[in-house]
Amino acid sequence: MKLTLSIVSKPGHPDLAIASQLLQASGFVYASQLANAQALLWFAPAGTHVKTVAELLEPLQIDWCLHENEPKPCQVLLCDMDATLIAQECIDELAHLAGVGPKVRAITSAAMAGKLDFTQALRARVALLAGQPQSILANCWETRIHINAGAATLVATMNQIGAKTVLVSGGFTWFANRVAKQLGFNQFHANELGVEQQHLSGTIIGPILDGQTKLEHLQRLCSPPDNACVIGDGANDLLMVQAANLGIAYHGKPILEQHANGRIRHTDLTSALFFQGIAISDWVIRAE
Question: 63, 82, 233, 237: which is the annotated catalytic residue?
Fold first, then answer.
């Protein structure tokens, strides 16, 4: 077992050189470069822990991933949707259009931080949308939803190398279907909103897709999940991120960052490719 550390910055950012100096002074040994002035791989001293790296690099605009072995391309890419592949939480945007934004955002924030049970919180938020016209979904998609930078290139590259690419969301199938098609995911899973007479019923059809369900999808796709790249942002992503050998917190809530071995805060989703040791020359570049 050889601990390695991937570090990534925006191209040419001066913090990459500062990080390199700090790592070298802390006993890390330079290994290789994946992109000039952007992505480097280091060998980490034995016993290095995620908390150690976090404390060392926290002041810098550096994203990073600590690996138990040298990184390699993964066989599975499993991604959350809301606040991960897209910049928004769909339920919050729907609530804004419905005029109940503050009530729903407060519940969302508590649920993503792990302070509320996800299933109960989702049902409570969806109930506040009861009676809204079904057209609110299209209005939300067209005016308020934006794909995050790097998502298209990440999925296209993973598809190119033959990985299974799966979107798994505690959000809604109406949006997950469109995001999955636009980005090229092999499959998607999410919750289905109830609709009656072209109006939202305020209910979810069938069982809730929660954190445990996300973990089960990972285990089904890759058992044991020792060659999967998993990306999420909140508490309901915790189980699958912990189980994966490459678990990434994307602008993650503190509860998720504590348990992820990779963090993306300052760059974009293509850093997940660097974290797998995939050089930029091997990417399938897609327009944003």
Answer: 82
Q: Are 156 and 284 in contact (CB under 8 A)?
A: yes
Q: What are the tokens at 125?
A: 């938020």
Q: What tokens appear for 182 in the block?
A: 């636009």
The stretch 12-35 carries a mean pLDDT of 97
Q: Please tell me whether the overall predicted TM-score, pTM, comes out greater than 0.90 for this model.
A: yes
pLDDT tens-digit map of 251-275: 999 999 999 999 999 999 999 999 9
Asked whether residue 78 falls in the same domain as residue 217, the answer is yes
Q: Which residue, of 71, 96, 113, is where some domain finishes?
A: 71
Please count the structural domains in the chain: 2
Catalytic, out of 80, 233, 237, 268: 80
pLDDT band at 1 (very low <50, low <70, confident <90, very high): low
- Judged on CB neighbours under 10 Å (0-12, 13-18, 19+), 142 is exposed
User: Reduced to 3 states, what is the DSSP secondary structure of residue 165?
Assistant: strand
Active site residue 82: yes
Helix/strand/coil (H/E/C) assignment for every residue in 215-245: HHHHHHHCCCCCCEEEEECCHHHHHHHHHCC
CA–CA gap between residue 125 and residue 101 (Å, rounded): 10
| Whether pLDDT at 118 is above 80 | yes
| Within-domain flag for 141 | no
Pairing status of strand 246-250 against strand 262-264: parallel
pLDDT digit string (tens) for 187-245? 999 999 999 999 999 999 999 999 999 999 999 999 877 899 999 999 999 999 999 99
Q: For residue 246, give its domain range.
A: 73-88+146-288
pLDDT for residue 125: 96
Q: What is the token pair recorded at 217?
A: 């999808």
Length in residues, the chain: 288
